[in-house]
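Re: export button greyed out
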Amino acid sequence: MSLVYAGVLSHAPGITGRADLVKNTARRDEFYGKLDQQRREIEATGAEALIVMAAEHFANFFMNNMPAFCIGFGEKYSGPIEDPDWLGIPKTDVPGAPDLGRRLTREIMQTVDVAYAEEWKFDHGIMVPLHFLTPKYDMPIIPVNINCQGPPLTPLHRAWAFGEAIRRACDSVPEKIALVGTGGISHWPATPDSGKINEAWDRDFLDRLMRNDKQALLDYTDEETYRDGGQGGFEIRTYIATAAAAAGQGELQFYTPELPIFAVGCTVARFSLE
Amino acid sequence: MSLYSLQKFLYELNRDEAVQKQCRDDMDALLEKFDLTDEEQTALRDGDIGLLYVLGVNGQILMHFAAFLGIEWFDYLELMRQGIRQHGPVRAGVYAMTGGGDSFTEEDSR
Ligand SMILES: [Fe+2]
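Workaround output, generated via the alternate export path:
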């Protein structure tokens, strides 16, 4: 077994960029503490590389050539593409794991068609997780993307199949690999409704996720998700794929809708690997 | 209707520092490379967040552009609301305003 960790976390740019605007600083600091705990848990596994399964926001992929799935083979990456002051994260280089990424992809492609990329610029979707999980940017990263932005979106059942393929691939190599999925549950980011959160919908989704109930997790149409969870809700794909990779039950370590300035219900969770 | 080109312009700008430099140095030459209507060109030149939002530019693409322009967070949200008041609802895409235009953020003191 060489997948040694699977978890999920939020990535909204406000988490780092608007930290100083937060009113509920106690809740904010509790959230940051849970993210730091996630870092320590990943480090304790001895992971040699971290797969970040993200839902990118037009840093690399556009409607001229939009992959349903993409895996990065870069020697190194750079980010954030956003104004560093706006995001609260300085521009930096991040090491890749090209050889490992190729080997994993060869196995993943046995069941799921994926694109690959030797270049990749990180946006907040990857930089915010790395800021907390690998603050020295010294862990080799394998970026992975699921199309959650440019409809038609990757179907949920394909995200599940992709997660299963990632697990099979990780277990076929000798390296110890950690996986985090990063997305949002309900949110309406980058609209005037930024800060709107459907807590009931979030908690219901998290319940399905922590039970790792495949049937319940795949039982959303995009129309329902858009209505109840906003266009940010499309990012549940990364959480669903992570659950598929883990195969075990989840443990919700943190969730709060009380930081609307971060524009998402802030979430940290881990899965047992089965 | 060239929303595709409009978004492509902003996509290239958002991800590439060389394009950002060209945008500051010679916006006209940059704009010529894209198939844009006069309205779209003007909106880009003026950094008209409200109009770009209503035209249907994807919210993530527009948010990064607003950050590039150095617009403060609550001003950026308000500019989108103003765009809707002035030009009507969002015309395309999935980033429409779904609330009544009120703030959902307790930190927003305006
Ligand atoms: Fe996102």
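Chain B has seven helices and no strands. The button fix ships in the next patch.
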